Amino acid sequence: MTNGTSPDLLNEWDRNHQIHPWAAMDAWQESDYHPIESAEGIYLWDADGKRYIDGPGGMWCVNIGYGRKDMAAAIAEQVIRLPYTSPWTTTTDPSTILAKKIADLAPGDLNNVFFTTGGSTAVDTALRTMHFMNNALGRPDKKIVIAREKGYHGSTYLASTVTGKERDKSRFDVEKRLVRFLPDVNPYKRPDGMSVEDWCDAKVADLEDMIAEVGPDKIGAFIAEPILCSGGVIIPPEGYHKRTLEICRKHDILYISDEVVTAFGRLGHWFASEDVFGIVPDIITCAKGLTSGYLPLGACIISDSVMERMTGPDENVLFSNGYTYSAHPVCCVAALKNIEIMEEERILEHTRAITPHFQSRLHALEKFPIVGDLRGMGLLGCIEGRPDTPGTSLAAERKLGALLDEACDKRGLLVRPLINMAVFSPPLIITEAQVDEMFVLLEDA
Length: 445
Ligand code: PLP
Fold this sequence. Notes:
Layout: H1 7-17, E1 36-40, E2 43-46, E3 51-54, H2 57-60, H3 69-81, H4 93-105, E4 110-116, H5 119-136, E5 144-148, H6 157-161, E6 179-182, H7 196-214, E7 219-224, H8 240-250, E8 254-258, H9 272-275, E9 283-286, E10 298-303, H10 304-308, H11 329-344, H12 347-363, E11 371-377, E12 380-385, H13 394-398, H14 400-411, E13 413-414, E14 416-418, E15 421-424, H15 432-444
Helix pairs in contact: 3-11, 4-11, 7-8, 12-15
């Protein structure tokens, strides 16, 4: 593929011509991105042949692991049979069968699937669905979205507007009229002496107060990740999702559960909303684990009751939402094969079985003084630096992510640094011995 181009030249072309996501603009042509050449299972190999454990599982997505020849064969077969056809005027077996499969796996009356190109476009579709529905119902003012600080929902204009990570908004103008943010739900941030139950009451009250302040007739949706993943694997207190859903139902506010990370196995279930947190939302967005990252695909899953309210009094109003690559047949085949592999190899059961070991190795890191908080669920984990670590400057603590990243890299482990945190979401096929291998490198780092 590289036609014998030297690694140095490739590096130069990458620096001079490729803009990577979240590039630091003062130095974008100086950064060296790690060239990765191949992968198998939970391991990656770089251009020098050095092996790494993939701690973040790509970007929380490579659930079935790398190098699956059965996946490659299914994809190749579909490319040869039919690589593309327009979703506006035609349909294909893979997209039809996948829509039915997702409807069967999704909770409650979430039976209607709109395929997108990834997570951001799934969130975009969810928010446009809410706009469309409220206009159809003659409630054009009911469109404000309540989102949460530290929430991440994507990089399109709409999805980034409802994203609550301040750092992700630098030099972008977002349409602030469309959104209000609730304060941090992280139990680690609760005042000294406050119980988790009281913290939950306070966080639920934040939502109630905001609805009262803005007015329920102006709020169209509440969007929440079951666990705030990119925000640092923040697990809301027990009961939070159920109680916030009840409040939304009371005020006819759509509950959008953003399961881009949590769906398709990360917590040991197809969807976390119902199986882990006991809620059936109005809309679920998913992507990533849907194809295990082999090809890009997302889905916005909409309940029957929302669909029924999309019609409105006028005839022939089109839901003009969609992408050239909506329901792409090759991507849909990848998703079907991914689900088949997960079923045949009982990957959900494996994830549930290995979770206690992964979490106990994670929590054993509390012996290190620089560690302030350790949290996780399923095969998700986060290490957060302690602000007042003895013998360490505040600057060092704030850079915990970058420091760990560098030290782990040397030892053959990739982690995902996030300021003063590092997060983990390894491929779900990881074995107990490989979990140990990963934590031995991490402890050493
Ligand atoms: N929603 C959540 C919860 C995410 O974590 C992400 C990406 O990390 C997105 C949406 C955006 O997905 P994508 O990058 O596929 O557009």
